[in-house]
Fold this sequence. Notes:
The chain has 7 helices and no strands. It is mainly α. The chain is elongated and about 100 Å long.
Amino acid sequence: MSSQKTYVKKLERADDLRRKGATLLWERVKLLVEVFDDDDWRQHVGLVYEKDLAAVLDEKVDDTGFDFLQVYYLFKHFPEKEQWATGNLLIMFDDMRAELAGEDPHKPKRTVHRVTNAQYEDAMREIEALKKQLATLRGQLTRARARISELEEASERETVAA
């Protein structure tokens, strides 16, 4: 009978440690989310893109099996400590992804568009024509800028002479 009590106590302790671990993870992620959202930190790091900023914090959660952006959005979706203490992160993550996918009906679905060789060749000819037109327009813009500079210099000379 005492062996039953021992394993029961061990299982209860394991459950308690799991809850505490999940709670500590929630606290860690909460701190990292606050850092990630902090403008001073973003300026200090000197990065602009969210993915680059998140990569700086990836090592802070590398023991979770998730990268920082994943736990960031998980935290934003499940912000309550109790949710993390009693939930399974993988199930929560899958639920979040499924829910978010269902919330965005405007997200384009991936489809394959088949084209014939003739359509492909027509598109390539159109691209080449547009490239030539772009080169022509860039040349015109360069000449117009040069002409503006000439006119500004002439205007300055006339103003000084007057």
